[in-house]
Design a protein that fits this description.
There is one protein chain. The chain is α+β, with helices and mostly antiparallel strands. The chain has one domain. The chain contains 1 helix and 5 strands, in the order βββββα. The two termini are 13 Å apart.
């Protein structure tokens, strides 16, 4: 499984792709001070950390181990 994070400086968002297909989008929530993942398949966000690198590492780990 290949998980990629594509930063968009103009919108300050990060696209999340799994195996070349769009999985969702990371948006920083200034009210909660955390990065929130908005998956394409779910109409709800999942909050992570205030640090983008830590958030990306956690999402990558979760996606790679989802079937364990």
């Amino acid at each position: 499984m290949k998980v990629e994070f594509i930063k968009d400086e103009s919108t300050k968002t990060v696209k999340v792709e799994v195996n070349g297909e769009k999985y969702g989008e990371l948006i920083f929530d200034t009210d909660q001070d955390v990065w929130v993942l908005w998956p394409e398949q779910i109409d709800d966000g999942v909050g992570y950390f205030d640090d983008l690198e830590e958030t990306e590492d956690q999402i990558k780990f979760e996606l790679e181990h989802a079937g364990d």
